[in-house]
Amino acid sequence: xxxxxxxxxxxxxxxxxxxxxxxxxxxxxxxxxxxxxxxxxxxxxxxxxxxxxxxxxxxxxxxxxxxxxxxxxxxxxxxxxxxxxxxxxxxxxxxxxxxxxxxxxxxxxxxxxxxxxxxxxxxxxxxxxxxxxxxxxxxxxxxxxxxxxxxxxxxxxxxxxxxxxxxxxxxxxxxxxxxxxxxxxxxxxxxxxxxxxxxxxxxxxxxxxxxxxxxxxxxxxxxxxxxxxxxxxxxxxxxxxxxxxxxxxxxxxxxxxxxxxxxxxxxxxxxxxxxxxxxxxxxxxxxxxxxxxxxxxxxxxxxxxxxxxxxxxxxxxxxxxxxxxxxxxxxx
Length: 332
What we know:
Layout: E1 5-9, H1 14-25, E2 29-34, E3 49-52, H2 58-65, E4 70-73, H3 81-84, H4 88-93, H5 95-107, E5 112-118, H6 149-167, E6 170-176, E7 179-180, H7 193-206, E8 211-215, E9 221-222, E10 225-226, H8 227-239, E11 246-248, E12 254-255, H9 256-267, E13 272-276, H10 291-297, H11 305-326
Parallel strand pairs: 1-2, 1-4, 2-3, 4-5, 5-6, 6-11, 7-10, 8-13
Antiparallel strand pairs: 9-12
Helix pairs in contact: 1-8, 2-5, 5-6, 7-9, 7-11, 9-11
């Protein structure tokens, strides 16, 4: 495998950190760019070039793209459903990142460009039932994506397409379906359902509580993909000849209630579920149709959900205990 100079945008984030780790293991030279200060990065690697920059600024994008062969754009202002439903404008502003990165990549003669899109681009009419029919790639149109975040992702997909068609920039796009795993956000408002449920169960168990809060009625369904599978899929898609956006996710559908019960089983406890019907819950049902990625790339997830959640729970439990130990003792 030839060694490359690779730019990972959003490399201080959850998926970005795992991608950087994988690319470094292959011997590539990595420039890792993120808006946050390095102490806030999910993973930090001394053998990468670590840069703090706001990629909504075009000049920063030009500097980031200088001298690189490939660009992976995972940079975005986003989080779980609680965040994206309350911060639509912030989510939309991420369009500046992709726009300026595409321009900078073209100017720098970058060979390949990857864009991390989302299942939030899919038409909401097709996601009203908990018994979700898996979403095919063509189900993004006619367009009715998640307001704010989903529209930004769909628009950015089109930008990638037109930069490929008009300027010859080799672009690849994956639509992520609910990625989870260790080194992710697990508290603070931007965490997603698997991490949030792990934290809630841990907190209940450690503090002798008998219940946890579930957003919505618990019947809403999703599929969840472990982060290692996501990274493998990203690399496969980047190396492929697939031109149009393609699903990258798992196909096992589970309700939020059942996911919470799985976490309780992992923790060795059983809790009452208190439903918050006024909290953001997103669409009623969403699942990935993996026919195209299976046929074209022979890709399928290696991690089943239980195995992935056990690993995730163990990591979050360690983080929870470490944070607890760092708190000053109460005065007697």
